[in-house]
Amino acid sequence: MQPKFKAYRSNFMGHTRREFRVLKEVKSVKGTDILEAIKRRLIEMTGEKVYITANHGRRKRSSLTGILEGTYRSIFTVLIPGNPPARLSFTYSDVLTRAVIIQTAKDKDESAAIS
Length: 115
Fold this sequence. Notes:
Blueprint: H1 12-19, H2 33-44, E1 49-57, E2 60-71, E3 75-80, E4 86-91, H3 92-96, E5 100-104, H4 105-114
Antiparallel strand pairs: 1-2, 1-5, 2-3, 3-4
């Protein structure tokens, strides 16, 4: 008996790599090195002002502005100024799956000029 629905293997990784705005070098990276490329790019951005859009699911998104404070083995932290200041942590796989979108001030200006 044939199943009604065929399971197709989607090209999710390729689609995700095309969607990155911050990680331009990810297009040429294949396999498990993608997370390392994300980590290297975030290490270069340490100390810079970043714009973060976090997807919480069910049409819930939050946009934040902060400073990329530190990168660690499996997470990176962002300091959100305020009274009191908040420190948020995200994983590199959040960036890969687009649950978190990070843009620097330069990237945000370029995308606004293009749109």
